[in-house]
Amino acid sequence: MKSKVTIIIPVYKVEKYLSRCLDSILNQTLSDWKAIVVDDGSPDMSGKIADEYAEHDARFVVVHKKNEGVSAARNYALNMADGEYIMFLDSDDCIHPQTMEILYTIAKRENVDVVAFEYDHVAHKDADAVNFAPNKMPESFNKIYDINNIKYKYVKNLITKSTNEDYGPRSWYVQNSMVWMRMYRRSVIQDIRFDTKMHVFEDTLFWSRVLLRRVSGVITRLPLYYYSVNANSALHAGVKQTASDTIAGFSVVADEFRRSANTRDARIWYKRFLWSILSRVYRDAIRTTDINTRSDIIDGFKKMKSDGILNLAPGLHAKRYRKRILRFIAQNA
Question: Whole-prediction pTM value?
Answer without folding.
Answer: 0.91
